[in-house]
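Teaching assistant here, posting this on the class forum so everyone can see the example we discussed in section. The complex has three components, and the goal was to see what a joint structure prediction looks like when all of them are supplied at once.
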Amino acid sequence: MLQEYLPLLIIFLIALLVGIIAMLLGYLFGPKRPTRRKSAPYESGMVPYGPGRRRMSVRFYLIAVLFILFDIEVIFVISWATVVRQVGVPGLIAMAIFLGLLEVAHLYAWKKGALEWE
Amino acid sequence: MSINDFLAILPVLVVLVTGVLVMVADVFLPEGRKGIAALLSGLGLAAGLGAALAAVPSTGTAFAGMVVADGFSLFLDALFAAVGLVGIGLAYDYFKRMRLQRGEYYTLLLFSIGGMMLMGHANDLVMFFLALELLSIPLYILSGFFRARLASQEAALKYFLLGAFSSGFVLYGIAMVFGGTASINLEGIVAAVRDGSANLTFLLVGAALLVVGFAFKVSAVPFHAWTPDVYEGAPSPLTGFMSSATKAAGFAALIRLLLVVFPALGENLAPVVSGLAALTMIAGNLIALVQTNIKRLLAYSSIAHAGYLLIGLVAVNSSAAGDAVAAMLFYLVGYAIANLGAWSVVVAAEQAEGRGLELEDYSGLGRKYPWLGVAMLVFMLSFIGVPLTLGFWGKLYLFRVALESGLFGLAVIGIAASLVSAYYYLRVVVYMFFRDGEGVARRDVWLNLIAIGSAAAVVLMALVPGDLLQVAAQAVLRVP
Amino acid sequence: MTAETLFPLVPWVVLIPLAGILINLLAGRALGERGVGLVASLAALGSFAVSVLLAVGLAQQPEGQSLLLARWMSIGSLNVDWAFRVDTLSVTMMLVVSGVGTLIHIYSIGYMHDDTRHNGDPARFRRFFLYLNLFIAAMMVLVSADNYLMMFVGWEGVGLCSYLLIGFWFEKGEAGLGNARAAKKAFVVNRIGDLGFLIAMFTMFWAFGSLSFGEVLPRAAEAAPAVLLAITLFFLLAVTGKSAQLPLFTWLPDAMAGPTPVSALIHAATMVTAGVYLVARSLPIFAAAPAAQSAVLWVGALTALFAATIAVAQTDIKRVLAFSTISQLGFMVAAVGMGAVVAGMFHLITHAFFKALLFLGAGSVILGMERGHERHAQAHDGHHGGFDPQDMRFMGGLRSRMPVTFWVYLIGGLALAGVAPLSGFFSKDEILAAAEQVSPAVFVVLLIAALLTAFYVARQLALVFFGQGRSEAARAATESSPVITVPLGILAALAAVGGALNLPGSHLLGDWLHHTVEPLVEAGFNPLTAGIALVIALAGLGLGWLLYGRSPLTRAEEPDPLAVRLKGLFTWLRRKWYVDEIYNALFVTPYTRLSQMLAGPVDQGLIDGVVNGAGGMARLLGNLGRSLQNGYVRSYALIMLVGVALIFTFLLAR
């Protein structure tokens, strides 16, 4: 049964092999002349200052997580909007429930102070 | 989508809506009045329990075949709501005492219960996954509820990482099943198998992956490794709830999958589940022997009991399927009662900063608090499976099913393992009654009520096991 | 009220006493002594009221009914329910148990008030009533059961209560162990009988596939004769244990270590009659095994005679009654052995009345002696060492000191002796009349037993109440309070007129029981045997009066007149034919030696060695497993992955 998928496996293996060979060739034949500038971290052309790993305020993460959450949830609204006529009133109710829940979450985040910076 | 769709999962909705309400209400509750959140949650769960008990067991699907309502799911709805109620009783005084009273505990607990209930109702592999995540994610968070306690954080992270790992297996299994049958709906899968259009190899691989994923949830060896660490680190009331309810939810999924969806694979899967059962019983009981911390001891005990339950799961694909499901549900109820009771004693005996959890700390506790001591004795006897307790009947029915389906080896292992388990269970009793110590326990109304009520239930319900089995036998699954 | 509405009440005969226990357990401390006694007595009374209602229902629908309360167990082909049987036989037992039980509860309020103070632990008052209610509940389970297993639950339950109550003052008695030892003896000896019950049940299930009365009894004759013989003989073993028959009677005299109300309720009126009830209930099985029937008959008859001979020579007021109880139980067992169920049940009922009366009267006497002893000790500031308030040699002349007790005791004694027209006369006469029809030999044996009965009754009455006080305590004794004398009065009335239940001619009880059991022997009234019985009873009483009443003893140290005449034989009788000593030498001592051998070298050496080895092995494995639990998530994930890999290897290798 699995034999049908044998070609697929062979393609995977060939792809893997090609990648490895390409990297191997570069490693073997590429010239290596490192300088101080070359081995410094790349920061869009700026001269790097301080270590690359710095602490960031946890608030950034909180805001980011909330943004991603609400952002992605809202995508559902778009897909719903494209078929709003077909799904009709039940669809409307479902979307109302969905948005209601979203609003509850928003309310919670708001009251808990997750949106305040200070 | 009609009103009937919502009625089919009414208990679930009641619990989830209550969860949302508690979340909103909590932010308006002043500090120190968080008991209202607990009360509200309790009312919601009671309403859910009422809805489950009052519902007429009908069989049918809802939401375009996504969910199913049958006797099995109703039984589990009631079980989860009841366990949840006890879980709140365990938590209320504890968090007040630990100065960690937050309404989120109850919200998350309700969400998790909703997820568990949904697990019983799932009729679609995606619903299984959703329910799994809905029940798991709140538990990850709750495990780390003691934010200031390192052990609690560690437990949460471990649980989350390994849980995500196991969810991966479930998802991969769903993909495989879909690949094999071109359907994720249970009816569709069954139909595909029936008309021969299914690719059985893919189906088998998928089913095995699903079994692995849910075996993690019921903490079957070798997917158990998270259990002791998480049970130890998580707040004790949560562990009590989790060990009773999550196990039932995991087995709910396994029963429905193996009985309804993959009966054709029984021949292949039965040896796998048998192996898991044997390994779980042996390893769980043996490692429990050397535990000195009560939470870890109960964790291994919970693993061991998952092993006994897995025997029933093996028999699900035999001619004794109906008996097997009834015996498993009976066992789950008996285990939940005794387990919640035992955890209520643990919660009562726990001191601030996680002290009072070593077996040494239980010295003399039984003589000082005779009610708690006697209750603990009853629970331990029930865990062992001594006659006159609910645990005895649970084991008896399970082992009988095993013998009826010709699983002599598993039954023998189960009985031997039960004998071994007597050692570590009775050790708790020995400490409580025959050692001198300075142990102190909290005298809280709810905790005492749970301990004594559970002990009474374990003994009294053991007087009418025939009737209880009858109830469990009515919890039949819808077979498409 | 119709039978359909009344019969479903039957679970309450068990539940009400249980409720009483619950109340006293939870709120007993707050209720105080009075409240505890009241709750317990009301619980017993409630049980009695329900029994009466059941009887009313039966009057309309005498064939009765089985009521299912709950399914108990169903394993394979074994189906056992919590089911109650309401029929004339079971309701008769319920009425006796709860009726006499209620009176004894009330009596106990007064008795235990004094007793707990005399023994120096008033806090045990509540415990006594908890046990007493538990006993009522267990006994009700026993008599209301619809199958043998549920009956066995009650059977064991009453055994447990008996054990707890015999050892109620467990730290008292000879060398501080006497009472505990008596309780243990009762428990162990009863266990032998219980084993018989169990084996009989196993055999029955194997032969009939059921343990329910309704299924087994109608099909009793279908089984092979050997099987029936096995079942019945093992039941007989159970009967000899619970009802204190030969050879297992030795526990009952020692059981008198319990408080007197216990002796009256458990060890005279109710529990010990469970064996009689068992045979009566299983009559169809016994009827199908004639050999077993004659075994039962002879065990009963010989016990009746044997115990009566011992009772003649005892000096302890309660021991006389204990051996008398064994003897009277022998009469009942002989009766049901003959198949004369009505006669046996009739005697069971009347015996419950007059023996409870006698025991409670004895209790009143003992309390009076204790009060007299204390009054005397206070007045003279002296202390008499070794005072035994139960020794009849120190009594005498109590007729004038305790008139009420005397009169009720007299009624009870004459009823026991079988003097017309008191209740004992009618019931004993029915047994004798039946024996006369069945076997002349048994008839003669029972007649001799009846003669001895009358004799020791006269002896006891003379020693306790007549003559003059032979100790300071007896001379200073006082009458008991109304809470004690009122139940005595009621019981005395019942003992006097109890015979009306089954008077010759009316046969009330006979017709009542006919609906449930069909006696094999119809014991009609036979003027000749009745006359012989009456003459025998009067002769016994007269003989006793000649020896003890005509010239009463004046000092406690004086030898017993009977001992003077019987010499060596009297010592044999007093020492109970040395049965205890023989049992000790034959069974107890070898068994103890064997146990010590097994406990020492065999268990601690051999078995512990093996077990510790296995345990160590298990611990080793456990530690090995624990080492895998190293706390690293990556290890855990690896373990999982290995598990998955193993599963897939297995699946693909298939």
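For the discussion questions: Chain C touches chain B through 36 residues (CB under 8 Å). The longest strand of chain C covers residues 65-75. Think about how each of these relates to the inputs above.
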